[in-house]
Structure formats: C-alpha cells, structure tokens
Amino acid sequence: MRVYAEKLVTCVAVALQVVGSRAALRRFSFKLHSASNSPDGFEREVYLINGQQPGPLIDVDEGDDLDIFVQNDLDVETTIHWHGLLQRGTPDMDGVPGVTQDPIAPGGNFTYRFSTASEYGFFWYHSHFRAYYNDAIRGPLLIRPAASRQRPFVDLAGNSDDVVALLAAERDAANILLNDWTHELSDTIFARYNRTGAFPSCVDSILANGQGRVQCLPEAILESGPGLGIESEISTSATGPSISTATMPNMPSMDMLDQRGMHDMSMEAHASSETTLASTSMSISHPTASSMMPDMPGMDTLSPRGCMLPMMFKPGFDISSLPQETCTNTTSPLLTIAADQSRGWLALNLVNSGAVSALRVSLDGHSMFVYAADGLYTNMQEVNVLHMELGQRYSVMVKLNRAPGKYYLRFATFPSGDMQQVLEGQAIVLYNTSKASTTNTAEDLVSDWMYINGSAKSDAALLDASALSPFEDNLSPPSGPADKTLSFLVNQTDIVSWVIDRAPFEEPSIPIVYGNISSGWDSTTTMHLPINSTIDIIMGISNQSLDKMGHPIHLHGHKFWVLGSGVGTFPYATIADAPSDLINLENPPYRDTTGLPSQGWVAIRYLTDNPGAWIFHCHLQWHIVVGMAVVLVEGGDELPALVGQYNPPPTTAMSDTCLLS
Ligand SMILES: *[C@@H]1O[C@H](CO)[C@@H](O)[C@H](O)[C@H]1NC(C)=O
Ligand SMILES: *[C@@H]1O[C@H](CO)[C@@H](O)[C@H](O)[C@H]1NC(C)=O
Ligand SMILES: *[C@@H]1O[C@H](CO)[C@@H](O)[C@H](O)[C@H]1NC(C)=O
Ligand SMILES: *[C@@H]1O[C@H](CO)[C@@H](O)[C@H](O)[C@H]1NC(C)=O
Ligand SMILES: *[C@@H]1O[C@H](CO)[C@@H](O)[C@H](O)[C@H]1NC(C)=O
Ligand SMILES: *[C@@H]1O[C@H](CO)[C@@H](O)[C@H](O)[C@H]1NC(C)=O
Ligand SMILES: *[C@@H]1O[C@H](CO)[C@@H](O)[C@H](O)[C@H]1NC(C)=O
Ligand SMILES: *[C@@H]1O[C@H](CO)[C@@H](O)[C@H](O)[C@H]1NC(C)=O
Ligand SMILES: *[C@@H]1O[C@H](CO)[C@@H](O)[C@H](O)[C@H]1NC(C)=O
Ligand SMILES: [Cu+2]
Fold this sequence. Notes:
The chain is mainly beta. Helices cover about 10% and strands about 30% of the residues. It is built from 8 helices and 33 strands. It has a 6-stranded mixed beta sheet. A hairpin with a 6-residue loop joins β1 and β2. The longest helix is centred in the middle third of the chain and has 16 residues. The protein is globular. It binds 2-acetamido-2-deoxy-beta-D-glucopyranose (9 copies) and copper (II) ion. The site of one 2-acetamido-2-deoxy-beta-D-glucopyranose (NAG) has 13 residues, from α5.
C-alpha cells in the first residue's frame, strides 16, 4: 500500500451568519481511519483524519462556534480533545474518556459543539484515548484574534508600512506541528513497556507537519554520548525552561546544572533509583556492570538511535528482552516553509505535539521574537532557542533580513532527567529561491544556535519561559492568599505506574462530569473544589519516586498562572508562606501547559470560574496512559444543568463485524 492519497470528506466550513452577531457557526467533518504512510521514509500503519497527517487545520475567527462531527472508522476507541480551549459552558465537549464523555466506539460518531468566545491564538487537537495521538490523530487549530486586540509585535515596526507587514505575517503564519515519531503503533509500544518495564523514550525521528527523515548519528557521536565529545560553552544568557532565576537557598542554580550537563543528573537519578529498588522486587539492569561507574569509558555510549539504554526493567527482563535496535538513514523530503523576503517578516505558530520528547527549536541565522505562548499574546522576548514542553505552543516573528536562501529550522530532543536521546530534525525556511531547486541542504551555512543534543550554544539566547508575562491588561492573578492549596508529590510508585497524587487515575465507566452516578465522582483521584475561588497547586517530586525526571503538566478547562518553579524541594505549605523572591504574583506567565523540572517544583494558580470536571495530567503519553492524572471538579452543583442526563452510548455503535458475527 502506498501513501494514503484518497480524498475523503474534506473540511467543509459552512459559515452560517448568526443574525445580530459577528460569530459564525463553523462546521467540520472528521473521518478517522487506518492507513499506511511513510512520513519519515519508513512505512507503517497510521491513524489519520480525512487522509491527512497532520489532521486538517481548523481555522476560525474569535467568537465563532464550532461543530465538529467525528466519525470513528478505526477499529479502536477514541475521543478528540481541543488542547487549551476552555469549553466554558460545555464541559462535556472536552474529549476526555471517563471524565467528560464515553469513548467513541469503532463505527461510532460524536459531534463536538463549543464556542470560542473570548479565546484566540494557536491551539491543537488530538486523540485523548490511550496514546493514539502518537499514531497521528492530531492537528492544528487556529482561532484568529479579533482585529480590535492589540498586537505585541507592532513594537517591532520601524514605520507604518512595517505594521502592515507584521500584521500580514501574523495572518499568513505557518502553522507547524512538531512531534517525535516512532515506527511502531502506540499499542505495540505500550504493550512492550507494560510487559518489560523498559521505558519507551527512544524515538525514530522528529516530524514537522508530517515530514521528516531518519538521521542516524555518526559513529563518533554514538561513542561520545550526549556530550557529543565537543569542548563547548553552553549559553548562560537565560535560565532554563520555566525555571525562575530565583533558586532555593543551597540549591544549585539552573546555570550550574546546565553546565554540569543533564547527564550528570541522570546518573544521580539512576543511582537513587537503584537504592530505592534494592528493597523491592524490581531490578535495574545495565548493559555492562561498569556502566554505573561515573568515570568509566563507555558509560555514555548511545544506542543506534542515539538513546541512553533503559535502566529499569520488570523482574525477569533485561535489555535482551527488547527488539534489537537498528537505525537506517532515509532521504525523504523535509518540510519547506516558503518565505518572501519582500514581505519583511515571517510568523511561525509552533507546537510540540509529540509523545515523549521535550524539544529545543531554533532557526539558523535568525532571531525569533516570541509574541504568544499557548495562544495568548505575551510581552515579547527575542530568543535564538525555544524550549518546548509537550503540548506547549509558541508564536514567533522572524525578520527576513538575510540573503535569500535556505535556512534550517532545527528541532532537537532535550533530556529530562534520565530520558536522554540525541536527535535533531529539520525543516527548511526557503526565501526567494524557487522550490524546484531545493536540494534539502541549507546552502547558506550561517550560524546555528544549538548543538544537536538541544543545548544552546554560548552566543544563543535561550527562552526564559518564566519571563513571558501576558501582553494584555487584567491578566494578573489575585494577589492574596489562595482559598485552597493542593500539594501534589509526583511519584513513580511502580515500574509502570506514575501518579500525580498517591494513586493512579483509572477511567470510570460513566464519565465523572455526570456526577455521582459515576464511580469516579468519589475516587481518591477526584478533588472537589469550591467555585469562584483561587486555587493554588504546588507540585514537587517525591523523594521516594523511582525516577525523578521532569514532567510537562497540562490542566484542562483553564489557563493558569505559573507563579514559580525551581530545582530542589519547595518546603512551604502555601504560596503565602514562601519568600517573595520565589513567587511571582505580579506578572506571571498565563498558559495551559508548563514544565515541572526534574527533581524540582512548580507552583500554579487559577480561578474556578468554569464548572466542569477537568483532568490535570502529565502530557508525556506513557505517563498519562498508566494513570498520571487527577480530576479537578469545580461547580459540581451546576453540572447537571450544563450536561444534562447521562445517556449510555448506543450499543449499535459497535463495528459492523460485531453485528455480522
Ligand atoms: C451517528 O451515530 C448514531 C448512533 O449513535 C447514528 O444514529 C447516526 O446515524 C450516526 N450519524 C452519522 C452521520 O453517521
Ligand atoms: C499491563 O500488564 C498487566 C499485568 O502486568 C495487565 O494486568 C494489564 O492489563 C496490562 N495493561 C494493558 C493496557 O495491557
Ligand atoms: C547515517 O548518515 C550519517 C550522515 O551521513 C552518517 O554519519 C551515519 O554513519 C549514517 N548511519 C548509518 C547507520 O547509516
Ligand atoms: C550537548 O553537547 C555539548 C557540546 O559537547 C555539551 O557541552 C552539553 O553538555 C551537551 N548537553 C547535554 C544536555 O548533554
Ligand atoms: C522575492 O520574491 C518576491 C516574489 O516571490 C519578489 O516580489 C521580491 O521582490 C523578491 N525579493 C527580493 C529581495 O529578491
Ligand atoms: C511513592 O511511592 C512509593 C512506592 O509505592 C511509596 O512507598 C511512597 O510512600 C510514595 N510516596 C509518596 C509521597 O506518595
Ligand atoms: C447524588 O447527587 C444527587 C444530586 O446531585 C443527590 O440527590 C443524591 O443524594 C446523590 N447520591 C448519592 C449516593 O450521594
Ligand atoms: C460565580 O461567579 C459568577 C460570575 O461572577 C456568578 O455568575 C456565579 O453566580 C458565581 N457562582 C457562585 C456559586 O457563587
Ligand atoms: C523525603 O520527604 C519527606 C516528606 O517530604 C521528608 O520528611 C524526608 O525527610 C525526605 N527524605 C529525604 C531522604 O530527603
Ligand atoms: Cu510525566
């Protein structure tokens, strides 16, 4: 079978003008189906939407209402979640199985209806069932901001023509989904993880809008390890991702950690894992006995795909239980992003829509002016390297002031604790050169800003996510104490069990949003919060956790303020108890996904102004699949009026084969 080409029901956008309002009803139709595709030159089974990888762009205006019909022609269940959208008044449209709806059975359908009132920016959508978005059920969602909103990037304009050029660049922005990619179905990978305990953090390639190639590392780098064997200076121009410049007393600063190299941290994590594991029935296996000795040669050696070998296995399994790892270079085409130099500016809407890997992103020879984070306009930051946690989005403006030519947009996996893979992918920004002449190599060798292991070079400005304050007024948090504080200690309690708070989340058979008829309503992983209240969530990593890696954390139904984060423990019961230099209540970032640093903490605040049952979870797919989530219910009394009575899914939604047999 070749690349899936048949055009199925394509996106029909029917703009029905609503009388007396500028909001339109926009209809889309999604057909989910299995197909065969080779996005990186390796053919495999994929799950597509309308034959496309990534799925169709949902492109609407602020205030529009959406009606999205989803027909599930897969032979597995699914749901679709609209990442970052608030679902105000429609908490049953959030797309989370067991929380807001029943899974859509094979052969079944579900229509999502919700409004985009007061929301704008770059979002994405994806399956929220098992890890099926890894199989390609994901796509971009753009809500074009109302013309009346002020744009942060107009400050970049030298004159009024430039304002027009910047606005045009935003309007014509390239929407780019970046994601790590593997050559096996997610169910196959999960089954192996569940059986052997070997964490599947190693991927085959990184795609940009469904295009990429397998690029195996040269032997010399595989032998040198994550440090690449290069003498280097690492950027100290900004602190690490989502980590405030304030650090705990007696804690190493992020700069020190960065210079020390993440690999050292991973060795600590292994060592502590081992001591923890000694008293359990689990085992740690190493390729060679000497590999735990920090200064022995060879300990850094990478697998053919550029990965550190998995360290933990279930009893009875070791590295030989896994399929022999191989890497074969491919030469499939890279994504080309056209840019016209005469237009002056190029805008990119970027999302890390991957399964396991945080990404570092840069554009050779150019700065990026970050003007939106998770959709929302921010005060601008000029950077050379972005750090993107899973689920996060950034919109950037690029000045097209270089010689016409080809420039690499690079994206590299970035380690979190012991999850280490050296892998870089590229797309090509092409300006004023005809597409036909593309040779897929950047001819203009201008400065690149990062190493292929994702570390920023010394002259490169790395994004400081903690400084991304909202651009618009009135987006500061309430400054007083919280009405309620939740303190969570993330814990890997077992080799295939990760928890946010004590117990793994398990999907109840009736969705929690339908109230106490759901067994999940009173579950230990469901918390009932007071409505119209200020909630703080302080997250740390349990010192008993088998692994102390960092996690990308996402809350549904809200944007939240990131009040602070850092390395080490946060030894305060509430935000009010913490010293003010650790906490930003004045102009903190306001977003829907943030990073909990490896062996660190993060504190967020939000307002319970949106009745619903909202899942709060790690976005790393193998973690949420094994339960790394809790459900935060607010306005429980108001839910029946919003979602109506629970109707069990019709049994006729079973697949045809069931009916025939
Ligand atoms: C959607 O599924 C229902 C059964 O749940 C069925 O009655 C309906 O015809 C389906 N709609 C479409 C457009 O296939
Ligand atoms: C994972 O493995 C356990 C047994 O170790 C089994 O009970 C469970 O069903 C498996 N989960 C999945 C989703 O396969
Ligand atoms: C893949 O290509 C790179 C760059 O040309 C080369 O260094 C590497 O050895 C190749 N690896 C394999 C396994 O062919
Ligand atoms: C990446 O490679 C550079 C250059 O050798 C090295 O200094 C840095 O520590 C490495 N980063 C990581 C995360 O290993
Ligand atoms: C770049 O190409 C566009 C047409 O694609 C043209 O209008 C413009 O003048 C060119 N700019 C330069 C600097 O060559
Ligand atoms: C973390 O998990 C371990 C292993 O199950 C358990 O002994 C410990 O009490 C847990 N710690 C926390 C803070 O939940
Ligand atoms: C379930 O909630 C309803 C109202 O929402 C209440 O009347 C009923 O008593 C509750 N049942 C249980 C078992 O708590
Ligand atoms: C919460 O606040 C909203 C908006 O101010 C108000 O309409 C609603 O009645 C409040 N709910 C409660 C339970 O106080
Ligand atoms: C682990 O955390 C617990 C509770 O936060 C604390 O009491 C204990 O001292 C810590 N242990 C170590 C070894 O840091
Ligand atoms: Cu996680």
